[in-house]
Design the sequence.
């Protein structure tokens, strides 16, 4: 069972989210007028639904600390996109071409 399948939003839901590792997430990345925007989605959720997860995800403990959540699943920084991209890959996040293409059409 995935965290998004658990109803109620209690401690069990948070515990399930915290078990996910960076490699359990896809990211898409953009350079928007000197601001780097990163979208994060659970890989299993995107693979099953083909859409962005529309709620905040407790990933601050595994994301680079300089990323700030501006909307649900969307983070920003003033660091260069290439640096952010490399930091996310080094941390274990997956840059998925299908998710990137989906987000390219959504933003």
Sequence:
């Amino acid at each position: 069972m995935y965290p998004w399948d658990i109803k109620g939003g209690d401690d069990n839901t948070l515990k399930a989210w915290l078990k996910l590792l960076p490699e359990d997430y896809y990211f898409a990345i953009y350079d928007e007028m000197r601001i780097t925007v990163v979208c994060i989605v659970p890989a299993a959720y995107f693979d099953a639904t083909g859409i962005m997860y529309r709620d905040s995800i407790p990933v601050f403990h595994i994301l680079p600390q300089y990323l700030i959540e501006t909307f649900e699943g969307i983070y920003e920084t003033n660091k260069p996109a290439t640096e952010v991209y490399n930091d996310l890959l080094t941390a274990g996040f997956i840059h998925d071409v299908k998710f990137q293409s989906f987000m390219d059409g959504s933003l």
